[in-house]
Write a structure and sequence with these properties.
This protein is mainly alpha-helical. The protein has two domains: 89 residues; 48 residues. 76% of the residues lie in helices and 0% in strands. The radius of gyration is 18 Å and the shape is globular.
Amino acid sequence: MSALIDRLRAASLDARRTASPLTGLYSAVLGALDTRAKAQAGVVLGDQDAIAVLQSFAKGIDETIQALSQRAPSGAALDKAHLERAAITALLPQKMAAADLRAYLEHLRATGTTNLGAAMARLKADRFGTYDGKEAAALAKEVFAA
């Protein structure tokens, strides 16, 4: 079982107990995870699955915030969207700083990873959801070009 999914379930339970406006968000995220689990019959979902679903929800909320902001600079719907985005952000792992990402890639190179593809695969396996893909690809090209 995933520690992140456990945190989502606890947040959902807490939101229901306190009649939080985030109850619907947590229910929707857990519903999306249940759908994903049914589609992958026999596979236990992990943190990578939870991160992928949360990132998908974050993208949708960001689009909602942008659309609502164009109509009116404030309002209850916009406030709720910002609250939901903050809740998602709090659950997602913190992104690696560029210096940390470079150090990790240099460590991979120093310990025997010899090509860009292998480094990116290892990064994904070890640090899924904790880096910006475009930034990682650019840094990996620099580190493995040297």
